[in-house]
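re: ur question from yesterday

yeah so i grabbed the chain u mentioned. its 381 aa long if i counted rite. heres the sequnce exactly as i have it in my notes:
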Amino acid sequence: MKTRMSIRVRLRQCIQRCFPRISRISSDKLRKLGKRLFPIALVLIAAYLILSSAFWLLANLGNDFRPSSEFQSGTVTIPGSGTFALTFQERTAVSEQCRGNCATAVFQIDRLMPNEQRLEGVVKVQIPDELKSIIWHNHSYIATSASDDSDQLALKPQYEEVELMLRIVDLLFTPGSSTSIPIPLRNFFAQDPFESREIAVPVEFRLHGQPDMYPGDWYWLESEVYIELPDSLWVHEPAGDFQSVLPMQLFVAAGIEMADKDIVVKQEEDPNGYFSTLDLMIRRDSRTRTYTYGMALLPTLLGLLLWHMLVVSRNRKEQSPGTFMLEAAAVMLAVMPLRAVLVPPDAQGLTRVDLILGFGLVVIVSAVLVKYSMDVWNATE
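ran it thru and got these structure tokens back, copy pasting raw so excuse formatting
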């Protein structure tokens, strides 16, 4: 007890020496000044919370850069649902429209990994008999009739180990770098006439995007895709030209896991039939964006209602501070699980939804701070 008294005496003496004017103020006035400063500090804290959270939210909205200029015109939007059901007959009809001399490659997008910014899928390659019949090597064709009474083609035995190369050239990260995927040529020569000669090759692409913008996130892919013949093999075109690359048409389809996303594909302006540019952007569909934004704004709406009830409205019966604090705490506890519902597991980190939810919670907390500061201020008068 004596130690506490001595500390108080020494502290009072120190204040009197350093701040003689303050020492003349009575303790009652100091208490009253403290009661005035406390509600002002609460209001300043509330203002800081609102301004800082609004700043980070606006910064996130303003940082929404996307390659929009690339996709203003000449694009086709593939909705996530239903596009994976391309039939074999439809793809055969496409190859017939190419006069039988074009291979068909359908890039089916199966899985998007936002945090890793990777895209997984399969490329389904089909080579029509008309194209296989004009592949040339050493003054002869590599395919022959399977039998005298059949139009089915068979690969000559010396070409059983020959492999085609599906090449994917990156045009975004390291322009010119390519990935090569070997495809045995014999797989396109099925012996069973009812067996599909469509070869599915798993592929993986790197993406450029902004996953922290969820649900306004987007992912951009730009690559060049072509099928290359091995050395000394050529495509002998009817015009007499020889090409080392198979003529090909590239199509894009969406897998089942892409049901909540739109795939915006940039159409080639001047396709040459040999090198296809895969230029596309993946984004959430409009239903997902609208629902997510609407649910994420609920805490802000509740906060505005709380502001009106506690601060603006004068017809409301006065309650004790503990009562409206409990009401605000109940609202905040009801808001907390929204994040787990709105943000998918693959969108990790701080997303736009988190910033919107955080802003709503700040509005709720600031209403309580301002209301409590008003009660403290009125109590001092």
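noticed a couple things. Residues 81-97 have pLDDT under 50 and may be disordered. also The chain has two domains: 27-63+289-380, 68-284.
anyway ttyl
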